[in-house]
Amino acid sequence: MAKLSAIEIYKNLPKTNCGECGFPTCMAFAMQLANKQASLDQCPHVTEEAKQALSAAAAPPMRKVAIGKDEGKVEIGGETVLFRHEEKFHRPTGIAIKVKDSLPDDELEDKVEQINRLGFERIGEIIRVNLIAIEHSGTSPEEYAKRVEEIAKRTNLPLILLSQDATTMKAALGRCADSRPLIYAATEDNWEEMASLAKEFSCPLAVEGGDLESLASLTEQINQTGVEELVLAPTSEDMLGYLEKLTLIRRLALEKTFRPLGYPVITFTDTDDEDPFQEVAQAANSILKYGSILVMEGMEPWRILPPLTVRQHIYIDPQVPNAVEAKLYEIGEPGPDSPVLFTTNFSLTYFTVAGEVEDCKVPAYISVMDTEGLGVLNAYADDRLSGETVVETVQKQGVMEKVNHGKLIIPGLVAVLRMKIQEEGGWEVIVGPEDAASIPRFLKQEWPKLKSAKQE
């Protein structure tokens, strides 16, 4: 069916302009449907006849796929834009760690436990690994199935079963199909058997192909068997070719609405322990260039944190300020002699400052000003951060009534505001460090001397 225009879609909508879909008018909703940036089920009043007429237009250009069940479920796909500034990316890349079924029992158990703990708190959010990929490395089908069952009992993370042998895959699915693992992978040689298993056990299926033509042909053949939850697994001999395929898949799916490639993509890092930094670079590239699932070899925290950080930034909505609530925060149990630091409500700024204060074990007040999510320098350049606004914020929060020293510490990046704040507020203004990493030394070494010193 050809792509429908907004007017053609609008003719099939109820035209009530009720706003329950999240858009002010039915025409606005129709325009979003035409651009694949909304789904028809957002309208509670659409008729069954309209659903049938608009089914092709309402279908997202990229299918959404769920791996796992319940709270640990990982949803991928369903993306609607090529670049995040057009709207945003909706479903963060699922990051998996690969384990081999040939590992000794105690080593395997220890590795799974480490993966379960691979999480970090960063700018107020817990970022963590999402899946475990279990590689079949030469054991018998029954041995592989037993290992899969053991791992499934030790983790709540969804599983990816890595084996192209249908007999081995069936044995493993017999032990864990209820948890809806991702089957990897259907190829030109085994797709009929793998599609049959995906249909029998109601599990999503990865489809592997060396070129996009064969990959599209495979997805069409598998679709005809009734299996619809697919994940694309393009292969390439080098990173450049890999990125080219990932980009082409995304463009064909979203810009051309090419349904045979309208699925999320699974990617793998291709390196060894001789160059772990190369794996980190590959992982970041895969996240930036449309990987819906990333399977990594290494699992050291220093190797996992960079890809998790990249993912966290890429999947933040660029059209919504990344801000914390502007208010007075207490770190530790501050008292009358505690320092008062001032900063803006950009999330990264606040959590970095708060983290350094917490680490140095010096109880403190942090006065956070509403700059609509701008950092210190950006807020100053935009005239949101000035002597007057700083004084207004500090007075409104009443922090100076909680301390007996009358001193306010401002970021070193805006030292130019010192005299203006001092004149307007009547406090002694101390210019603090320019970077958050220097805060612990400042609070431990400089603050004890400054808090008792008289104002010049």
Please name the defining characteristics of this protein.
456 residues, alpha/beta, 3-methyladenine DNA Glycosylase II, Chain A, domain 3, TIM Barrel, Rossmann fold, 3-stranded mixed beta sheet
Beta-sheet strand percentage?
15-25%
Backbone CA Rg: 27 Å
Coarse shape: globular
What are the segments in which pLDDT stays under 50 over at least 5 consecutive residues?
none
CATH topology of the largest domain: TIM Barrel
Number of domains: 3
Can you give the helix content as a percent range?
Answer: 25-40%
Largest sheet: 8 strands, parallel
How many H/I helices? 16
The helix/strand class is alpha/beta
Name the CATH homologous superfamily of the largest domain. Answer: Dihydropteroate synthase-like
Average pLDDT for all residues: 93
- In the CATH hierarchy, the architecture of the largest domain is Alpha-Beta Barrel
Please give the number of β-strands: 17
CATH class of the largest domain: Alpha Beta
Main sheet: strand order: 10-9-8-7-6-3-12-11
What is the topology?
Blueprint: H1 6-10, H2 26-34, H3 48-58, E1 64-67, E2 74-77, E3 94-100, H4 105-116, E4 119-122, E5 125-128, E6 131-135, H5 141-154, E7 159-162, H6 166-176, E8 182-186, H7 191-201, E9 205-209, H8 212-223, E10 230-234, H9 239-254, E11 266-268, H10 276-288, E12 293-296, H11 301-314, E13 328-331, E14 340-344, H12 347-360, E15 364-369, H13 376-381, H14 387-397, E16 407-410, H15 418-425, E17 428-431, H16 439-450
Parallel strand pairs: 3-6, 3-12, 6-7, 7-8, 8-9, 9-10, 11-12, 14-15, 16-17
Antiparallel strand pairs: 1-2, 4-5, 13-15
